[in-house]
Amino acid sequence: MKNTEAEKNALERMRPGHITAQGFLGTDTRGLADIVEADIEELRRLGVDPDEAAARLELLRDEGQKGLGEPISVGKRWVVSTGDARGMLPCPWNDGLYHKNSIRVQEQDGALVLIYSDLSIHLLKEHRFLQGRGSPFRLEPSILAQLLRDE
Ligand SMILES: [Zn+2]
Question: 119 C-alpha vs ligand 1 centroid, how far in Å?
Answer without folding.
Answer: 8
